[in-house]
Amino acid sequence: MIIFSFILMSYSIFFALTNTIEYDEAYSYLYYSNTIHGFTSQSLANNHPLNSLLIYFSSYFFPYSEFMIRLPNLIFLILYLLFAIKISCNTKIKLVTFGLLILYWYLIPYYFAQARGYGIASSLVLISLYYLLNKPSTDKNILISITLLLIGSYAFLGLIPLIISAIIYYFVFEISRPIIFVKKRIVAIASIFCVFVYLVSMLISVSEEGKPLYGSYNSSFLSSTIGFYTSSFFDGNYKFGSVATNMKDISSTFGYSEISLFTCLIFFIFFVSTMLFNKKKNKVKVSLITLFCFTILYFSSLIMNKPFITGRSLLPFYPLIALSTVEIIEASLKCIKSLETKTKFKRILILIFFVALTFNYFNKIEVSLYDLSFKTKNKKIIEILEGKPNPRQLFYQKKESFVKKKID
Question: Which of 53, 113, 209, 243 has the smallest CB count inside 10 Å?
């Protein structure tokens, strides 16, 4: 696992060094990371505050350096890989768990090698899940887990439904005496609540009517979420979603049949998960939180008339999907009694699964070589955002000016 992590880390560094700046990276750097207070802007959802703040510090002495702008995400990738190993070592299907967590090319290296908040948020979600799965459910560990999600939400505001889901889970399944818990930790809980309210106000601000939002406007919730994960994982297709100011006639677009189907599906899965939770002694913790989270994501989109979550916005939720899959596989293997005694056969199956994941991963990777020509990078692009030149074009124009000044 350590060797594999080193290979992926090396490749991600190579990816960060050799790839030209992306549109959203350039925009974030130019408008949110050029000043110490830029990260506080609530103008657009394009700002991932924690990421913008960290970029300001990492690029302070190295302006317009693609690698230094991407350095915060690479540092969090080290944490992600470390905790992926830790979590994997505590499961019965170590290689499968490890493979599912790290062998998703759209996350590693693609977005962990970009200056966006998705990698940082994914790492903090995984660490939070580590406290859920591998630490005793003490008051301290519960509060640490929720605090990590709050910090992750400051890297990507879309994680707020996950915070709500985690709180619901802890109070329903882990905290035996909620009132006593609140009284004992009133200061910490009050602080968490204040931060949570602030994050919610930020989310409302950046997603208010008239502001562009990334999401799925022409697909159902299931195809926007499950469809995205399967397509990006197996097919390598990652061009999902679109940006617009609002959804058009959501009830006629998606119909009430899907709402009914999805509602029934939720109740069915919740019933089965609860039964498994009681029977398997807390073996479906992540699955329950995932279920709560995606239920909130679904109904909040309907109620607030917003696009369904899809594409890159789903990346911070990927650790949930991966570990839920592990829980389902482990529960299924336990149900197959014939496999309990056949340890060698089970190990071969796990190895085959891991090899298949590895083959799928390396089959999807595409490397974009760095183009040293400023002329190529500074091609005029027609797209305009908020009346400003295309961020990529502007970034390389400013970089060229900075380099010339430095030489002179």
Answer: 209
